[in-house]
Design brief:
GO molecular function: FMN binding; menaquinone-dependent protoporphyrinogen oxidase activity
Number of helices: 6
CATH class: Alpha Beta
Largest sheet: 5 strands, parallel
Protein name: Flavodoxin
Radius of gyration: 15 Å
Number of strands: 7
CATH topology: Rossmann fold
Helix content: 40-55%
Shape: globular
Strand order of the largest sheet: 2-1-3-4-5
Distance between the termini: 14 Å
CATH architecture: 3-Layer(aba) Sandwich
Number of domains: 1
InterPro entries: Flavodoxin_dom, Flavoprotein-like_sf, Protoporphyrinogen_IX_DH
Strand content: 15-25%
Domain Flavodoxin: 5-141
CATH superfamily: Flavodoxin domain
Order of helices and strands: EHEEHEHHEEHEH
């Protein structure tokens, strides 16, 4: 079974989460960072997992474009969706998923999760640090990716990915 994890990251949290997730999944796993690699042909994959990070309430534009261009194919595959985001409010998390992913894909996905976040103040620019301090309330570098959430997602995805669409 071939699985493709397609992600975009700005400061590395989503990449870190993607690599941790790949270790928890069986079969052949291909990792694609849309920021640094060309858009893949996803027809040959059985399973596709897509992850992005939230900045200013939304995921990266290039990832959104990939989703729109490939939506018909994605709706024929087993799909999992994840976000790396720092806002802890469950209402905000639901809004982030709705803003990040097309409604049809959200409904179709067999696994969805928020894996947590990292705020590495050494990687953030001055404006990003100010926003994190003021809006999120975090005053120093914080690393809160949840290995438990990643493992739960992997378990759910493995269980559901054995069934055909």
């Amino acid at each position: 079974m071939q699985t493709c994890i397609i992600y975009m990251t700005k400061h590395g949290a989503t990449k870190q989460a993607s690599f941790h997730l790949a270790k928890k999944l069986p079969g052949d796993i291909q990792m694609i960072d849309l920021k640094n690699e060309p858009c893949p042909n996803i027809e040959g994959f059985d399973n596709i997992i897509i992850g992005g990070s939230i900045y200013m309430g939304n995921i990266q534009k290039q990832l959104k474009q990939f989703l729109q261009e490939n939506l018909p194919i994605l709706l024929r595959k087993k799909v999992g969706l994840f976000l790396c985001a720092g806002h802890p409010d469950p209402k905000t998390i639901n809004e982030q998923f709705q803003n990040a992913f097309p409604a049809a894909l959200l409904h179709h996905a067999c696994a969805k999760a928020r894996f947590g976040y990292t705020y590495d103040f050494y990687k953030l620019n001055a404006i990003e640090r100010m926003i994190v301090k003021k809006i999120v309330g975090i005053k120093q570098s914080t690393f809160q990716l949840s290995t438990e959430k990643i493992e739960e997602f992997a378990t759910q995805f493995k269980r559901k990915s054995t069934h055909k669409v």
